[in-house]
Amino acid sequence: MSLKFCNSTENIRGGVNCPSKLHLSAPLPFVGQKRMFARRFIDIIKQYPAGTVFVDLFGGSGLLSHITKYHHPRARVIYNDFDNYRRRIANIPRTNALLQSIRPIASEFPRNKLITGVARDRIIDVITREERDYGYVDYITLSASLLFSMKYRTSLEALRKEGFYNRIRQTDYPICSDYLSGLEIVSCDYMELFEHYKDTPGVVFLVDPPYLFTETGTYSESWRLADYLDVLTVLAGHSFIYFTSDKSSIIELCEWMGRHQSMGNPFERCLRADFNASMNFNSHYTDIMLFTPQ
């Protein structure tokens, strides 16, 4: 097994590499960042001994890893940056410059109102030039300034299809050069990372997968029910901090499984037939029939 780690920026505090400033929210927009849990998470993380190895399996915005490293400066903290959040942080100066170019165009319209006509075309032109000239645009951060209702798009093609609103951030995003300081950064499948550290003495896994039945469009891979259940296999026999929501019903499902341990898979003997169906032009689904063979 070969995991490729990269070093984060370095900052010295207390003789070790770690963040000099504590962030209680991610420096750039990210779906599912744990800012509401931050202070409670700090209370929990402080209870672990100094020699603990923390492995953030679903690193996301890096907020959990950042907080952990800040409060355990001498601990190993492995951050799985599967979504390349560090690239977004590295490009904060370019993102600020792009927003500075869009801001006067958007200001022609009232705050939170729809941007239409020539102004909308001009904004698209600015974004197109940015991508052409610099090869990168942080579309998720840009979405936070142009789209409503927690909509995030990850490409110019997808952004073109949306209505633009004047929600432009009025100040620059702070440069967070040491936000990921001291972390051991890797980008890989979470199960590969788990296999690498599962036998490490004193390891604690931070487990924050995409939530079941919530929007996962900005993540680098799609998630099915089986994927959510697979995550549970890393919990048995290990110390962990696990995040979910009441929308997922995952806790209720696990409690039900605990009460019916001998049931097994009721569909194991079944054959399956699928039928494509639609509710309207934009909504399609698959009906499934499972039946036992005669």
Pairing-aware structural class of the strands and helices? alpha/beta
Global Rg = 22 Å
Q: Tell me, what's the shape?
A: flat
Low-confidence stretches: 9-15
Oligomer category: single chain
Approximate helicity band: 25-40%
Largest sheet: 6 strands, mixed
Helix and strand sequence: EEEHEHEHHEHHHEEHEHEHEE
Describe the protein.
The protein has 10 helices and 12 strands. It has 294 residues and is of the alpha/beta class. The strands form 4 sheets. A 6-stranded mixed β-sheet has the order 1-8-5-4-9-10, sandwiched between helices. The chain has a two-stranded antiparallel ribbon with strand order 2-3. A two-stranded antiparallel ribbon has the order 6-7. Strand 9 (203-207), helix 9 and strand 10 form a beta-alpha-beta unit. Helix 1 packs across helix 2 (63-71) and helix 4 runs antiparallel to helix 5 (117-134). The N and C termini lie far apart (46 Å). The model is unreliable at 9-15 (pLDDT under 50).
